[in-house]
Specification:
The complex is a heterodimer of chains A (387) and B (115).
Chain A (H helix, E strand, L loop, with lengths): L1 E7 L3 H14 E10 L2 H4 L9 E5 L7 H11 L4 E6 L4 H9 L4 E4 L4 H12 L22 H10 L4 E7 L2 E8 L2 E7 L2 E2 H10 L5 E7 L12 H11 L4 H6 L3 E2 L6 H12 L29 E6 L4 E5 L4 H22 L6 E5 L3 E7 L3 E8 L5 H15 L1
Parallel strand pairs in A: 1-2, 1-3, 3-4, 4-5, 10-11
Antiparallel strand pairs in A: 6-7, 6-10, 7-8, 8-9, 12-13, 12-16, 14-15, 15-16
Helix pairs in contact in A: 1-5
Chain B lengths: L1 H7 L5 E8 L4 E6 L5 H20 L6 E6 L2 E7 L3 E7 L5 H16 L7
Antiparallel strand pairs in B: 1-2, 1-5, 3-4, 4-5
Helix pairs in contact in B: 1-3
Classes of the chains: A alpha/beta (387), B alpha+beta (115).
Chain lengths: 387, 115
């Protein structure tokens, strides 16, 4: 329940409308202050407010700078950045500056209602008051609701979903479902199945995503959820039981994620082999693995899960993850999907990175004798392993 | 420099190209699409960081080729900065050689050596 909030905006009409909306979210004693002057707002004690909404552009100063100042003073408060534009750059900058939520300024009653609904999610009973924690509970009734709430909030999270004997992952990036996977299936089909698992009774943990995940689901989340609903995979049991979310507080998120990744790789048994096959031997696909100096694979959380002739596993995992994340930034700038493969050419070494939905494989070749055919063969081998 | 990039823009399959100096200055650029110079600069800087990270790992690299579906990002670090090109086609070693055989003389005319 909301007790005290501050709206910091030079748009008086919006501020008053939002104030009335926020008051409706609270109780009789709820107080919502409105301040139009940023410099005066800096004299306020932000600790008294559970929620602070501030514009990206204020009359006297940059709203994002003010956000950082206030956030330092009152890390427990929730901060919502309100912007007139909803482009990815503004959104990313807001989250980088410490915003808990990015909101495009609502211009219609419908948009205001949606915004208030999202804000309401911050003050649901039972939610731990830990805005800095990346792992948090989601006391929502079923998986579809969680996905909807996360997307509506523009979040970037990895949802680790468990139900009975099954487990899977859903990647939400900047408010859109990018990817879903569970052992044996990936993409939209996996998402559809997971939404229907056990009539919506799932265990779930969320981890904040720090990089752009590979994208296998192109459909906007609303359409995706509509399709799932109309396809009937979300059976009547969900609404009848109301669904329930159980939090697995003792599980280590990264282990869970890597477990899912290992389990999904088709050639691997439950007891995953720790190393690649020897060079020139075909494992599952038809293409033999070419001679390499070393090669390894990291999963989406940056852990090295397989490798051969890897001298310094930690450093290898780091550099692969580093390149992976940097190229994700480039993909965003180019407005394209994640890279398929990458070659780095040097005087002594050549490197090939191949990305799939589960991670990145990275090989190092000696330049002296490596031919283009060998690099192509490696890419082909990686693709066959992925399938 | 604009002259050089006017010609580079005419290279078959070229979507965008840029040269960013070691100081991070966008020395020249061209784009046959809506890719902004800011984005090109950002991409070049990111590629430079990748090459730098590899150097720190004793895996010296000067050229990178990244496949984004049917499109390809090519980058090459020279003595005074980094060149990036975004192409509307896949590439192989022959395409790469052909690309730089056209780019190098144009940049060299402006005093930039990529090799």
């Amino acid at each position: 329940m909301l007790h005290q909030a501050l709206i910091l905006s030079s748009h008086r009409e919006y501020a008053q409308t939002m104030r009335l909306g926020l008051l409706e979210l609270g109780h009789d004693q709820t107080r919502v202050d409105v301040e139009v002057d940023a410099l005066r707002a800096m004299q306020l004690a932000p600790q008294q407010y559970e929620l602070i909404l501030l514009d990206t552009v204020l009359d006297a100063m940059d709203g994002l700078q003010l956000l950082q100042l206030l956030k330092n003073q009152s890390p427990a408060s929730k901060f919502i950045i309100v912007s007139d534009s909803s482009d990815e750059t503004s959104r990313a900058m807001a989250y980088q500056s410490g915003a808990d939520f990015f909101l495009e300024r609502p211009r219609t009653p419908e948009a205001l209602a949606l915004a208030l609904e999202a804000i309401k999610g911050f003050f649901k009973p039972g939610r731990p008051d830990e805005p800095q924690q990346e792992e948090e509970e989601n006391p929502v009734v079923n998986l579809a609701d969680i996905v909807q709430m996360r997307c509506l909030s523009g979040d970037s999270v990895l949802l680790l979903v468990r139900s009975g004997q099954q487990s899977g992952d859903i990647f939400i990036f900047r408010g859109e479902v990018f990817h879903a996977q569970y052992p044996g299936k990936g993409g939209e089909a996996a998402f559809r199945d997971m939404i229907g698992w056990d009539g919506g009774r799932v265990r779930i943990r969320s981890i904040k995503l720090t990089h752009v995940p590979p994208r296998t689901i192109e459909v906007p989340y609303r359409q995706l959820l509509d399709k799932v609903e109309h396809a009937g995979t979300q059976g009547p049991d969900i609404s009848q039981t109301g669904g329930e979310l159980f939090v697995v507080s003792t599980e280590t998120p990264s282990n869970t994620a890597s477990l899912s990744v290992v389990q999904e790789a088709p050639p691997l048994d439950q007891a995953a082999p720790p190393v690649f096959p020897a060079p020139n031997l075909s494992q599952q696909g038809e293409t033999p693995l070419p001679q390499v100096n070393s090669h390894w694979k990291v999963n989406l959380t940056g852990e090295l899960i397989e490798g051969s002739q890897v001298a310094e596993p930690d450093r290898c995992a780091f550099i692969t993850t580093f390149i992976y994340r940097k190229m994700a930034d480039v993909a965003v700038a180019l407005e394209v999907d994640y890279f398929n493969h990458m070659t780095l050419l040097g005087p002594h070494l050549q490197q090939v990175l191949v990305a799939d939905n589960l991670g990145v494989r990275h090989a190092v070749f000696d330049t002296v004798w490596t031919t283009e055919e060998q690099r192509i063969q490696y890419v082909k081998w990686c693709c066959e392993q992925s399938f | 420099m604009n002259k050089a990039f006017e010609k580079i823009a005419l290279i078959e399959g070229m979507i965008a190209a840029a040269f960013v100096s070691d100081e991070g200055k966008l020395v020249g650029w061209c784009a046959n699409s809506v890719i902004s110079p800011d984005n090109l600069c950002f991409i070049a800087e990111t590629c430079r960081v990748i090459l730098s990270a590899n150097r720190a790992e004793q895996r010296l690299a000067h050229t990178g080729v990244v496949a984004f579906g049917e499109r390809t990002l090519v980058f090459r670090e020279g003595a005074s900065g980094i060149f990036v090109a975004y192409l509307d086609s896949p590439t192989n070693d022959a395409v790469l050689e052909w690309l730089f055989s056209q780019v190098n003389p144009r940049l060299a005319a402006e005093g930039i050596q990529l090799e």
